[in-house]
Amino acid sequence: MPDDGAIGSVAISDNLLLLKHLARYAIADRRRAVLQPLTTTAASLLCAVALLYGVIHGLGLAALLALPAAAFLVRLFIIQHDCGHGSFFRSRRADDTLGLIISFMTLIPYTLWRRDHAVRHATAGNLERRGRGDLTTLTVREYLARPRSARSTDT
How far apart are CA 73 and CA 44, in angstroms? Predict the structure, then answer.
């Protein structure tokens, strides 16, 4: 069995390799930042048109297309989310512009969502600062005080 020093040096070596590998993803790539929303939007719009065609010509075709259409919509929201964190472009203004444009497709108001999401990050896990933008977090006592019918809901 290797001694603790060998285990520690292997872990450090692995971490350094991982950090080196991930370093290229730590800086915004303008080409990818432009390409991703364009291709995702094009695919999303193509799915929307195909869904309309499918609804007119048979629900089976529309049902097959619903899953990829939903996946592209989720991908658009992921890009909007990254823009809200200011991590998509190097420019905050570019992030906010793209996030706002995408919000018209996701139907999630960008500015309101970004503010609420920032509050959620700032207060996550702090029971004294629960409110807008967070998931309902209850203590065990609060959970048990709820009627059984309200225990599984997020209200």
Answer: 7
- Give the CB-side neighbour count of residue 146, counting CA atoms within 13 A: 14
For 18-31, the pLDDT digits (tens) are: 888 888 887 778 88
Contacts of 115 by beta carbon, 8 Å cutoff, 6+ apart = 133
Q: Is 137 left (phi over 0), alpha (psi -120 to 50) or beta?
A: beta
Q: Which two tokens stand for residue 68?
A: 């990829």
Mutual orientation of helices 59-84 and 92-106 as an angle, nearest 10°?
Answer: 150
* Measured distance CA(50)–CA(121) in Å, rounded: 38
Tell me the pTM: 0.71
Rounded to whole angstroms, how far apart are CA atoms 155 and 143? Answer: 11
Residues 6+ apart with CB under 8 A from 108: 77, 80
Question: What single-letter DSSP state applies at residue 123?
Answer: H
For the chain, how are helix, strand and coil distributed in percent, rounded to 5? 75, 0, 25
Residue 98: exposure state from Cβ atoms within 10 A (0-12, 13-18, ≥19): buried
